[in-house]
Amino acid sequence: MKYQVGIKIYNSFEIEANSEEKAEEKVRELDVYQTLNDCDFNITYVDKMNNLMPGESPRRQWFALDAGDLTAVGDCGDFETADEIATDLGMETNWLVSPDMAQQWANALASRGITAENNDE
């Protein structure tokens, strides 16, 4: 199983310089090890990876009901873009499912014990 983990990195530096611009320049010139030394970080999200394109988030996935099958359309952003992509993919879309609705459906199915892990029973 693969997961995409987002982090926010925090660090600060005491820099001697003649101006704010020079101090900023000195920090920008630090290498990766100097930049991350003694840093702190927070994990901002953990998403299970499901064959997504780089940069796509499972939280923003749209789906299309196409001839009875629920098919992933992708990280579309809004209804109009999802509809355009589904059309470009040659889908005869009966219904577009927003990320929020897909999550609600997944939660409802999981509440009844129906998950991807046990769908072959």
Task: Give short descriptive properties of this protein.
121 residues; 2 domains; 3-stranded antiparallel β-sheet; two-stranded antiparallel ribbon; 4 helices; 31% helix
Concise description?
By secondary structure, this protein is of the alpha+beta class.
Give an account of the 3D structure:
This protein is α+β, with helices and mostly antiparallel strands and about 120 residues long. The chain folds into two domains: about 5-50, no CATH class; about 60-120, no CATH class. It is about 30% helix and about 30% strand. It has four helices and five strands, in the order βααβββαβα. It has helices at about 20-30, 30-35, 80-90, 100-110; strands at about 5-10, 40-50, 60-65, 70-75, 95.
